[in-house]
Amino acid sequence: MQEVDAHIERVKKLIELEAHVELKEFINDMNISDVAELINEFVQYTLYLFQLLESQRALAVFRILDLSNQELLLKSLPPNIRLKILNELPPDDRTALLSELHSNAVKDIIKDLNPEERKITLSLLGYPEESIGRLMTPDFIDVRLDWTVEQVLTYIRDYGKRSETIDVIYVTDENGKLIDDVRIRNILLVDPKSTKVEDLIDGRYISLNVNDDQKETVNVFQMNNRVALPVVDDTNILLGIVTIDDVLWVAEEEYTEDIQRIGGTEALDEPYLDISLMELYKKRIVWLIILFLGELLTISAMSNFESEISKVVILATFIPLIISSGGNSGSQAATLIIQAMALDEISIRDWWRIMKREIKSGLLLGGTLSIISFTIINIWHFFSPVFGDHHWRIAFVVGSSLIGVVLWGTLMGSMLPLLLKRLGADPAASSTPFVATLCDVTGLIIYFSFALFFLRGVLL
Amino acid sequence: MQEVDAHIERVKKLIELEAHVELKEFINDMNISDVAELINEFVQYTLYLFQLLESQRALAVFRILDLSNQELLLKSLPPNIRLKILNELPPDDRTALLSELHSNAVKDIIKDLNPEERKITLSLLGYPEESIGRLMTPDFIDVRLDWTVEQVLTYIRDYGKRSETIDVIYVTDENGKLIDDVRIRNILLVDPKSTKVEDLIDGRYISLNVNDDQKETVNVFQMNNRVALPVVDDTNILLGIVTIDDVLWVAEEEYTEDIQRIGGTEALDEPYLDISLMELYKKRIVWLIILFLGELLTISAMSNFESEISKVVILATFIPLIISSGGNSGSQAATLIIQAMALDEISIRDWWRIMKREIKSGLLLGGTLSIISFTIINIWHFFSPVFGDHHWRIAFVVGSSLIGVVLWGTLMGSMLPLLLKRLGADPAASSTPFVATLCDVTGLIIYFSFALFFLRGVLL
User: For chain B, what are the domain ranges?
Assistant: First the structure.
């Protein structure tokens, strides 16, 4: 990080001094990731800095720039350079970029692609938004069973430049159906002349279907120790490959969506500082209104107990404490269960085991808080007699309510994500604020029921 | 998934029929990931199923089994087979396994390693828990500047079997200092006889320091499009490499910790169903007690307003609605900011831009809820005059409190993660329940202050 800061200082000075030659030399000597960071930092000089880059490096930098800078460059670069960049982008990156741009910008850009590139882009665009088809690149190396390793190596030498990866080679039949994959290491470890491709295959390949959900890929890569996986259609014809570096981004997006849902907001599709204020407002207000309407039920619940509150005002004092304890324990449980489901540690079939665990956990957690509150209320009474003569009764009501509320919160928090999953919804939609709101309403009812039960005839 | 279920059915029947030969044939024909899933499913047959596997496949399956099954197998397998598995595990996987096992089990196992393996394992174990050193494998291919590509290919053929990956080859000097890395594609694309290693390097390698934090690696891999990165010490000597498939697991662990912290619980180090009830209790109760003690402040806050509540009991009715609206908007803001920080979209320097955005957002969000509540209270009054004659005054107090509380919650939620980061703490520790608790206390004060201001002389 310090290094980057030093770079930034240096570039600032060079820009001020208009020292073009030195600047050009300097940024062409940096790592591409540092150059990208630099360009993202100096938004007003994006075009200027970018045009100083050597053409091969420019492409590499472009691929990792922020979306807003990519859009800016596509609009402002001279047409011939724009075309060059778009034509040389790997098809999967280009598709990702195009699907993020505004649709008018996309039309203009696709128009400029050469016919072959356009065909690839459009065919990639035909697959659903979250499908593997959108992630794959059709640039791979495929060979035949009866080739010798020497033939394969010559073929790679001739056609490998275009391929996204040559770490894995694919074996197909004359119809393009996938037979197997062979890692380049296995090809390099044998004698090239005497070994044929058919000697290297073991028939144990893993493939992805073009219509599968992108979420699945992360698991498949984790479990199978591959850097690339083949993508086939329903008739097993090899259409493209997915490389592991693209999967890192998918995983990040998945987790981001989950975290944002758990926090009680619609998933933002853009970085926080790039999204417009109105978009940000729309993403947030929906859930706030839903939660607000849910919370209105607390008013109905409370108005049933108005006469109790007017008799024992001190009861109102404990409302925030009681309902938030339920909400907090519910949020915890929901988070643990949502996350365990996302990692495939638990499934719906485990619901009974989970429920048993959460009943025990809820009793332990509620019991602990109950003991703490009982102790504190009685100690508090020594210093300030705010709870009146019946302080031990109040302590008893609060303590037993806490056990009930925490147990209930824990059960709601753990079962709701499972129920949502069972109904085909996203478990992460049972966000922590949502669980907390449910616990508010039920917490009030539990609390006042305990109060009525223990205080009737005494204070009520 | 249906395929796996079909496998499970089949294996169940074969076990019942004691058809060992068919069973052996069947599971040796499956993908290793399916076999692993099968073994994880049939815990009581772990040892039996595992011993049916051919020796090379057994190793591959072992690597991806659940930790509890790995531990079980290490304990129950005959010593010679256990030794074989441990000796053949890639060092990074073995280190990961050993650091998860109970320390007594580890001692027994390390004792069994051959001296060379033990040395590697212990040296790997010397690096801090979350450092890159724990992730690296010392099995890589390094070559010299003056070798021809033909020499390199011969060297790979002789020593490549032992290497974790040959997708990238490293160039070092005679002291083992890293000079550059070369992708295998670049080696395969040139004429082997006339090209030397020095013709292939460009000096633009990216390396990791052995003491760096593992979190950093995910970003480095995303930005640089590599499948493996070299690990060096402070004097630039090449110690090992980190492969991208290991990074997928690091990313998953990071996100899981973040999500669990945001949900208000200590990060679990084990799968939900594997962790003992007491461990689960300990991880959860700490935060619940902290939040509970924080929530006790609401009692102090409320007791200041006891006389107001006794005069206008209806005021108590709105307490849950008001404070939870603050908590919900605070949770949203905290989640968005924590996540944007995790993705490096924002940094502490942006605090003023964020604050300006959140003030605007808070006013918009609070304003919307305020209008809704004002409308609902006045409509409600038509059907049930629970709010009395002063319903519009009450509506005004509630509405204006909502703007104040939501604005305050939004500001707290967005600034707290930044503050924690500034103080060197984990921003994710400002969990949604934590923010909600802070908003409860302040929300009460805001609400009753507005009530006093607008109702003094009328109802109070």
Answer: 2-130, 142-243, 277-455
Contacts of B365 in chain A (CB under 8 A): 281, 284-285, 288
Contact status of A319 with chain B (Cβ, < 8 Å): yes
Characterise B441 by phi-psi region: left (phi > 0), alpha (psi -120 to 50), beta (else).
alpha
Answer whether A160's CB lies under 8 Å from B185's CB: yes
- Residues on chain A touching B160 (C-beta within 8 angstroms): 185, 188-189
Q: Does domain A142-244 have CATH number 3.10.580.10?
A: yes
Beta carbons of B437 and A328 less than 8 Å apart: yes
The answer to pTM > 0.90 is: no
Q: Is A277 on the interface with B (CB under 8 A)?
A: yes
DSSP state of A180: E
By the CB < 8 Å criterion, does A442 face chain B? Answer: no
Nearest to B273 among A317, A332, A353 (CB): A353
Interface of A with B in 395-424 (CB under 8 A): 406
Distance from CA of A373 to the nearest CA of B (A): 9
In this structure, the number of other CB atoms found within 10 A of the CB of residue B311 comes to 13
A135 phi, psi to nearest 5 deg: -100, -20
Q: Which fold has domain A2-134?
A: MgtE N-terminal fold (1.25.60)
- Quick check: B428 and B338 in contact, CB under 8 A? yes
Query: Which tokens is B52 given?
Result: 């049916």
Of A317, A332, A406, the CB nearest to B302: A317
> Using the beta-carbon criterion (under 8 Å), do B328 and A436 form an inter-chain contact?
yes
Q: DSSP class of residue B178?
A: E
Q: What is the DSSP string of A70-113?
A: HHHHHHHS-HHHHHHHHHHS-HHHHHHHHHHS-HHHHHHHHHHS
| Closest chain B residue to A205, measured at CA | B31
Q: What sign has the CA pseudo-torsion B60, B65, B69, B75?
A: positive
Chain B: residue whose CA lies nearest to A186: B161
Name the helix (H) or strand (E) containing A238: strand A238-243
Whether A324 and B436 lie within 8 Å, measured CB to CB:
yes
Task: Give residue A27's Cα distance to chain centre.
Answer: 33
- Distance (Å, whole) CA A132 – CA A130: 7
Q: Does domain B142-243 have CATH number 1.20.1540.10?
A: no
Å between B75 CA and nearest CA of chain A: 23
Whether the Cβ atoms of residue B125 and residue B99 lie closer than 8 Å to each other: yes
A331 contacts in chain B (CB < 8 Å): 263-264, 432-433
Tokens read off for A196: 């044929």
- Across the interface, whether the CB atoms of A324 and B204 are under 8 A apart is answered no
CATH superfamily of A277-455: SLC41 divalent cation transporters, integral membrane domain (1.10.357.20)
Q: Could you tell me if A122 and A133 are in contact, meaning their C-beta atoms sit under 8 angstroms apart? A: no
Sign of CA dihedral B384, B386, B392, B398: negative
Judge: domain B2-130, CATH 3.40.1080.10.
Answer: no
Q: At residue B7, what is the residue type?
A: H
Name the closest residue on chain B to residue A159, using Cα atoms. Answer: B189
Per-residue pLDDT of chain B (460 residues; tens, 9 = 90+): 456 677 778 888 888 888 888 888 888 888 888 888 888 888 788 888 888 888 778 888 888 888 788 888 877 787 677 777 877 787 777 777 777 776 556 666 666 666 666 666 666 666 777 788 878 877 788 899 999 999 998 888 887 776 767 778 999 998 889 999 998 888 888 888 889 999 999 888 889 998 888 877 887 887 777 778 999 988 898 888 888 877 887 888 878 888 888 777 887 777 888 888 888 898 888 888 888 888 888 888 888 888 888 888 888 889 999 999 998 899 889 888 988 888 778 888 999 999 999 999 999 999 999 999 999 888 888 887 777 777 888 899 999 999 999 999 999 999 999 998 888 887 877 678 888 888 888 999 999 999 998 888 777 7
